[in-house]
Amino acid sequence: MIEAGTKPFWRATIALCIGSFMIFSNVYVTQPILPELQQEFMLTTLEVGWSFTITTLMLGLSLLFYGPLSDALGRRLLMLLSMAGVCVCTLLLSQANSFTSLIVLRGLQGFFLGGLPAIAIAYMGDEYSRKALLLAVGLYISGNSIGGISGRLIGGFVSDWLGWADLFLVMGLMSVVCWLLFWWLLPASQQFTPQPLHLPSMLQRLKGHLTNPLLLLVYLVGGLNFFIFINQYSYITFVLSDAPYHLSPVWIGLLFLTYLTGTVGSTLSGRVAQRIGQLNCIKAGIVILMSGSLLTLSDALGWIVLGFFINSFGFFFAHSSASSWVSRQATYARASASSLYLVFYYLGASSGGFYLDPFWQWLAWEGVVLGSLIVLLLTLSLTLALSSLCARGMIKTQ
Question: Of 189, 211, 248, 336, whose CA is between 20 and 30 Å from 200?
């Protein structure tokens, strides 16, 4: 087993963080340029959102494929192949000549983007000791947030400088460099035990995870939290590009520096969870996310930005704890268990806009916050219910 602080620990963890950076910078690269794409192609807010929604939707659905396949065929090779597919699609996106072709390629890109998120935590669950796993998951998810920040910053700056087509060329070249580093650094699996690739068995394992309340409730919490968090960022871009702010894509891209507190939150979560437990970390993260959402109701730009700093910390604090909880509680087919968590997570991302858009049409940003609080109260209630079941001994934690 890989122990915390050893050379293999750092090689593997750095590789997975680089891979995470690559994946999530590609996922979110279009988010700061939504108003620009809306104007260029004459689209509604809901229509232009498909440049982001289709990617997260296909990413989420692909996890049902990658997780079970990696349980049968192994982790490292499948991650490398899927990341190579991302590089190809990103480079092809630079040649897209219509919004339709952009959407088609973003969907295909989303399918390949699912490979690493579906497998990475399962790889860690196989290879790392328990202490190393808690630390590595937090660092890995910090790579998610850094990738999210970087993709949006690159999207804002490069599109403003070179245009949206060359933006994908730059992202493609960066992705190739990340793929090469990942291939060089990541150690081969030593503890992996293959399971037969048998469809009825795969479906049975998925059913087992979905009927396990230790996992299902956390799947719902993680998916619904992301359902709100990520789509708040999409709608705030329309607020900030309009009066009285009139921010350009460059400045809107800078808003996503608020993800830096998410990096801190995910890194801290592993250490805090060792003291107060993962479920308490999830509850605390949700309350923090609700508080930040309320703060964004201010008209002052500074308070809005501060609210998103708070939101990012709270969301990633909860998300890192939820991801680690799934890996610890799954007693078999860990990749399938982690993949199901991410299926809920990314289906939440792709569907949250449909839920929030009526609130946006009704009350603009105030409506988005109202819709957010309704869902966050639900996720807090679900986490409290799981804690209650565990405390009463109705569910045995491991």
Answer: 189
